[in-house]
Amino acid sequence: MRKKDTKITISFPEIVEIDFVPANELKHYERFQWLVALLAPIATGFWVAYVPSDESYGPLFFSSAVFTAVTLLFGVLAWRYRGKIFNGKIKREVSLSSFR
Question: Any idea where the domains of the chain sit in the sequence?
Fold first, then answer.
């Protein structure tokens, strides 16, 4: 009794398209997003300390405003780099015949 040979057929497409993400923009986006996550609670803490105070305490208001402004700046930069990542994909096409 003879066993039948198993045959496997695999078909590949002629061209493979790969979407790459710009690494530099991704690095900047992650850094600015991390800074927003770090500074937003600090700014909130200063505002929580400033708002219930009876008298206007200048340094506390100044610290609250500065941390809020820096947080918003980093938020805008993170949003800008996020747009570059999602709209600036690098597409590469590779022919599988070049791998032979």
Answer: 15-99
Length of the chain in terms of residues written: 100
Which pTM value belongs to this model?
Answer: 0.69
8 Å CB contact between 90 and 20: yes
Report, in this order, helix, strand and coil percent for the chain, each rounded to 5. Answer: 60, 10, 25
Q: What is the tens place of the pLDDT at every residue in 13-58?
A: 777 777 777 888 889 999 999 999 999 999 999 999 988 877 778 8
Cα–Cα distance measured from residue 48 to residue 42, given in angstroms and rounded to the nearest whole number = 10
Phi, psi of 48 (to 5 degrees): -65, -35
Cβ atoms of 32 and 77 within 8 Å: the answer is yes
Structure tokens at 49: 């300390």
For 6, the 3-state DSSP assignment is coil
